[in-house]
Amino acid sequence: MAEPYQLLQASNRPHPAKDQYLGFASLPVLNMILSMKTKSFLRLLAVSAAIPFSTSAGTIELTFAPVEDFRDFSISGLSEESTLPLFEAELSEELESVATKYLAQGEKLVIYFTNIDMAGDIQPWRNRHNADIRYVENIYPPRLSFTYQLLDAEGKILSSGEETISDLSFMMNVLAPIRSGHQNFFYESTLLRDWIRKTYRDRTELATK
């Protein structure tokens, strides 16, 4: 079926509505329609502005004791000092979503690592051509020792303590075969994420009730 405008053009007979449809007589109608749409948009914008939304939530700050004293903290033959910025960058990125989910806005969880024993073990005698391979096996679980403080927006201590955490079933994680291939510290970040979730999950659930 032809469009209305095409029907008007195809007809040779005068049409009383033709000038209104195509000419200046339609401008008041268009102005009215545009005015209605503008008012509707402004009302919608005002309502949207009145709805509160979450901005940045809490943060997690990682600090470290002298890393040269850590039990096992090295990747790819790097020294402990060279491994540190890689560890800090990867865990900070992984923990961002955890902070958003379990910490309130303005809160800060400060974690001070006193010892790190990474998953697996470096055994140079097993490969003469690559002495820096890390062999990840069940008998070498990740272990993290740290102190922590949860601070509110004014710096008041909400909770604090000292922990040593490990996971003997770390290799049963279904994501391990996928993510450990491109994450140097997958097992350590998973261990810490799980501790934060278990420690602060209850207070989050109470706050939402």
Walk me through the structure.
- The protein has 209 residues and is α+β, with helices and mostly antiparallel strands.
- The strands form two sheets. The chain has a four-stranded mixed β-sheet with strand order 1-2-5-6, with helices on one face. A two-stranded antiparallel ribbon has the order 3-4.
- It is 41% helix and 19% strand.
- The model is unreliable at 1-27 and 36-55 (pLDDT under 50).
- The protein has helices spanning 4-10, 18-22, 27-50, 80-102, 176-179, 186-208, and strands at residues 59-64, 108-117, 121-122, 134-135, 143-151, 157-166.
Mind sketching the topology for me?
Blueprint (H helix, E strand, L loop, with lengths): L3 H7 L7 H5 L4 H24 L8 E6 L15 H23 L5 E10 L3 E2 L11 E2 L7 E9 L5 E10 L9 H4 L6 H23 L1
Parallel strand pairs: 1-2
Antiparallel strand pairs: 2-5, 3-4, 5-6
Helix pairs in contact: 4-6
Keywords:
209 residues; alpha+beta; four-stranded mixed sheet; two-stranded antiparallel ribbon; 6 helices; 41% helix; disordered N terminus
| Residue windows where pLDDT falls under 50 for at least 5 positions | 1-27, 36-55
Shape: globular
Widest beta sheet: strand line-up: 1-2-5-6
Number of helices: 6
Assembly state: single chain
Helix content: 40-55%
Amino-to-carboxy terminus distance: 58 Å
Determine the structural class based on helices, strands and strand pairing: alpha+beta
Beta-strand proportion: 15-25%
